[in-house]
Amino acid sequence: MPVNSSPIALVTGASRGIGRATALLLAKRGYRICINYCQDHSAARSLVSEIETLGAESLLVCANIADESAVCEMFDLLDQRWGRIDALVNNAGILHTQSTIEGLTAERINLILQTNVTGTFLCCREAVKRMAKRHGGSGGAIVNVSSAAARSGSPFEYLDYAASKGAMDTLTKGLSIEVAAEGIRVNGVRPGFIYTDMHADGGEPDRVDRIKSSLPMQRGGRPEEIAAAIVWLLSEEASYSTGSVLDLAGGK
């Protein structure tokens, strides 16, 4: 039986929204996809079925990226199943109900940071261990999914979430320099107001419709539009791009 030479990608938080759209587009481009999720098993299984109809291979892994041991086990499982990773999309992220700073607790802030920042660091660490030339790897590409909130600060709504995404942007820049000579490219995207279920997590499912008239493009974005940019940054078409963060916020 011939060895499968298709590239290997891991997408965290892939069961919905931008992660789901990215996993599907990568499958269409011939990648083998490791689908990471944390809670919604039904949605994750549905994604596996869609990927299978495209004729692509997938590996489903339930893991909380805020848990260091769970992250290590996920990458070890991927090693055993397919081998060294080629592409990582750090998409997993959480937010809580809209609040001013007066309503924030240490518990809430730490939960946000543990997933959005620490979890992203851990996944980058494990990917670099496998991609870096000094470890016998052949390079690779990482895309961190930040947010336009990193620029706006998201006052009166999500200061903690915005701060976590600002940290992701700093990680993107610093890590891109640190691993450039190892053949690893690190870039990011900053989506704006995108139609995803995450807004319901914040207590306002129709948030995009409320805000869209204030955007220069007068509309919210679709997950597929963000996925297209992510997949481009992972591709050889973006071979000279590293340390960049692409704004995808309708001109905001």
TrEMBL record:
Alphabetical list of SUPFAM superfamilies matching this protein: NAD(P)-binding Rossmann-fold domains
Membrane-spanning residues: none
Gene Ontology molecular-function annotations: oxidoreductase activity, acting on CH-OH group of donors
UniProtKB keywords: Oxidoreductase
InterPro entries, A to Z: NAD(P)-bd_dom_sf (IPR036291), Sc_DH/Rdtase_CS (IPR020904), SDR_fam (IPR002347)
One Pfam family cited in the UniProt record for this chain: adh_short_C2
PANTHER family per the UniProt record, alphabetical: NADPH-DEPENDENT ALDEHYDE REDUCTASE-LIKE PROTEIN, CHLOROPLASTIC-RELATED (PTHR48107), RE15974P (PTHR48107:SF7)
Family designation: Belongs to the short-chain dehydrogenases/reductases (SDR) family.
Name the UniProt record assigns to this protein: NAD(P)-dependent oxidoreductase
Taxonomic source organism: Hafnia paralvei
